């Protein structure tokens, strides 16, 4: 599924958060969005996912949707957004309950998600009994249960420790190898962007405008290899240079205000 | 002790003088003193029982030693005998039954109405805009002051007492319910919307369970209000009921019977609290 963002502007009362964003996500592409705090990354994701109404401009989707897709554009949240009163399996089942599925299919989708994310033994546990990484796995299993065509990920690893982040990045890579889902991935972390994305969109300080779109030439599956490191270091340096300049200017503006 | 640490102070390396040449104090090897764990609260289950027993003993002693007239402060033993007498002659059940029925009907009416309005105010902006000023205006009125009006409207019988209790319970339930709905994390609702859950499913699966802790906390407050109002209403115009019974005992200077009635009220409050605790434990075991 392709995502087409055109002339997108968003204002919260007098505050312009996003200004004139034009962006296209190709089928199966992973686009990371980075930028200083408050530049409108999460707002962009919210608008793309239809949970924030834009002030101006449009967001359209087109293209193939997988068989059995129940929710073409699906979020994975930073804070996991699990219902604390439901068990792991009931949290996954929540997003299937309002669809006309047979009991067997509902069970099959829930079980597949549980097994794929290594949660089978924890299916009866409540979220409070799980670690942060396990909770995010529940969030991913819930997203997989609806067989999405596009994933919108809002800093999905930022609440986790470094070790868990590494493990979940491997999970994401495995997922994308299998499903080839288009993804818009908002992050603060350059390493996540370099590891997972095909392109990186750098937003300017508020109001967020596209400062630059950087393509990572190295194929995703080779990025851990030593031969890829020189290129990745170069891209990293460029991204950091852009980010740093924007963050410093944003800081100066806050200090002046 | 790990191998890397010195086994005894004597095995420690000699203290080095502070860097940068600044003159400092040398501390001889010594164990680190425990300085407290942050005012941790410890459980002393026996303390409440002991305090209760001590209070009863002092009260009994004061009466028996003649320090207070039994007419004004009868000893706990006399109160116990009066309570036993109430059980034996059936007056306890007769009065308790009347009070419990009034509380049940008034509380259920007030709670259902309050939850309905509270939900509307929690969910619909227009209902909130209309409801908040009205609730703010009516909530502070002492509800017992309206009993004479309710007697005029509904007569001296049961409906005026149901109305007083129901009205008293209604406003705190409205406030508890819409505040509880406000406290449901918005990220959960956004998650449900992003997965396309219909409005009814969001209400049933997220808003209602998410608001339940606040609503149950409200029940505790409204149960106490119902108990206060039933006693007050029964004191103004009732033949039976614990409130009427206590008032009658006071008029007859039967202070032991009066205190037995107060004891029954206290036990009623405890029983209601216990039922609500059980309900919370059952419904909110996820917390």
UniProtKB/TrEMBL annotation, chain A:
It comes from Azospirillum picis. Residues 3-232 form the ABC transporter domain. It holds the Pfam family ABC_tran. The keyword DNA damage does not apply. Belongs to the ABC transporter superfamily. Keywords: ATP-binding, Nucleotide-binding, Transport. InterPro entries: AAA+_ATPase, ABC_transporter-like_ATP-bd, ABC_transporter-like_CS, ABC_transporter_ATP-bind, P-loop_NTPase. This is NitT/TauT family transport system ATP-binding protein. Transmembrane segments: none annotated. One of its GO terms (molecular function) is ATP binding. Gene3D superfamilies: P-loop containing nucleotide triphosphate hydrolases (3.40.50.300). SUPFAM superfamilies: P-loop containing nucleoside triphosphate hydrolases.
From TrEMBL, chain B:
Gene3D superfamilies: MetI-like. Residues 1-23 are annotated as: Disordered. InterPro entries: MetI-like, MetI-like_sf. It is found in: Cell membrane. Keywords: Cell membrane, Membrane, Transmembrane, Transmembrane helix, Transport. Residues 1-10 have a biased composition (Low complexity). Residues 96-276 form the ABC transmembrane type-1 domain. Belongs to the binding-protein-dependent transport system permease family. This is NitT/TauT family transport system permease protein. Signal peptide: none annotated. Pfam families: BPD_transp_1. The chain crosses the membrane at residues 45-66, 78-96, 103-124, 130-155, 162-181, 201-219, 226-252, 258-279. CDD domains: TM_PBP2 (cd06261).
């Amino acid at each position: 599924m392709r995502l087409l963002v055109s002339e997108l502007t968003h204002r919260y009362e007098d505050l312009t958060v996003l200004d004139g964003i034009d962006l296209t996500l190709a089928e199966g592409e992973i686009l990371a969005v980075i930028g200083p705090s408050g530049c409108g990354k999460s707002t962009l994701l919210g608008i793309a996912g239809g949970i924030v109404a834009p002030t101006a401009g449009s967001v359209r989707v087109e293209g193939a949707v997988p068989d059995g897709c129940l929710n073409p554009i699906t979020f994975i949240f930073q804070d996991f957004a699990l219902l604390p009163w439901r068990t792991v399996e009931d949290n996954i089942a929540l997003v299937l309950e309002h669809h006309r599925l047979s009991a067997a299919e509902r069970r099959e989708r829930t079980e597949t998600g549980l097994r794929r994310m290594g949660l089978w033994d924890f299916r009866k546990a409540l979220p409070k009994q799980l670690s942060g990484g396990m909770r995010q796995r529940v969030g991913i299993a819930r997203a997989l249960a609806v067989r999405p065509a596009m994933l919108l990920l809002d800093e999905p690893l930022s609440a986790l420790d470094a070790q868990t982040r590494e493990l979940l990045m491997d999970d994401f890579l495995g997922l994308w190898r299998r499903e080839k889902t288009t993804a818009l991935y908002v992050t603060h972390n350059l390493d996540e962007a370099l590891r997972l994305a095909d392109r990186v969109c750098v937003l300017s300080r508020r109001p967020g405008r596209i400062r630059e779109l950087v393509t990572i030439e190295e194929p995703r599956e080779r990025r851990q290899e030593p031969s890829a490191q020189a290129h990745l270091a170069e891209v990293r340096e460029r991204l950091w240079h852009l980010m740093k300049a924007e963050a410093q200017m944003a800081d100066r503006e806050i200090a002046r205000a | 002790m790990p191998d890397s640490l010195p086994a005894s102070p004597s095995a420690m390396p000699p203290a080095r003088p502070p860097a940068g040449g600044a003159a400092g104090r040398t501390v001889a090897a010594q164990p680190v003193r425990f300085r407290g764990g942050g005012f941790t609260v410890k459980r002393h289950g026996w303390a409440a029982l002991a305090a209760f027993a001590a209070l009863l003993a002092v009260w009994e002693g004061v009466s028996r030693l003649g320090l207070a007239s039994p007419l004004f402060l009868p000893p706990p033993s006399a109160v116990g005998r009066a309570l036993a007498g109430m059980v034996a002659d059936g007056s306890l059940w007769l009065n308790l039954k009347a009070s419990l029925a009034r509380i049940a009907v008034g509380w259920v009416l007030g709670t259902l109405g309050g939850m309905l309005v509270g939900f509307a105010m929690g969910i619909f902006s227009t209902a909130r805009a209309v409801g908040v000023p009205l609730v703010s205006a009516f909530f502070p009125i002492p509800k017992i002051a309206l009993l004479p009006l309710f007697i005029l409207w509904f007569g001296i019988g049961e409906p005026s007492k149901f109305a007083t209790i129901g009205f008293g319970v209604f406003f705190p339930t409205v406030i508890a319910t819409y505040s509880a709905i406000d406290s449901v994390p918005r990220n959960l609702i956004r998650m449900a919307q992003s997965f396309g859950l219909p409005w009814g499913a969001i209400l049933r699966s997220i808003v209602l369970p998410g608001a339940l802790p606040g609503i149950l906390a409200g029940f505790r407050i409204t149960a106490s209000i119902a108990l206060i109002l039933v006693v007050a209403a029964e004191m103004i115009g009732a033949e039976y009921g614990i409130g009427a019974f206590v008032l009658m005992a006071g008029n007859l200077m039967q202070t032991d019977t009066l205190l037995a009635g107060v004891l029954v009220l206290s036990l009623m409050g405890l029983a209601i609290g216990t039922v609500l605790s059980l309900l919370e434990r059952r419904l909110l075991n996820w917390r």
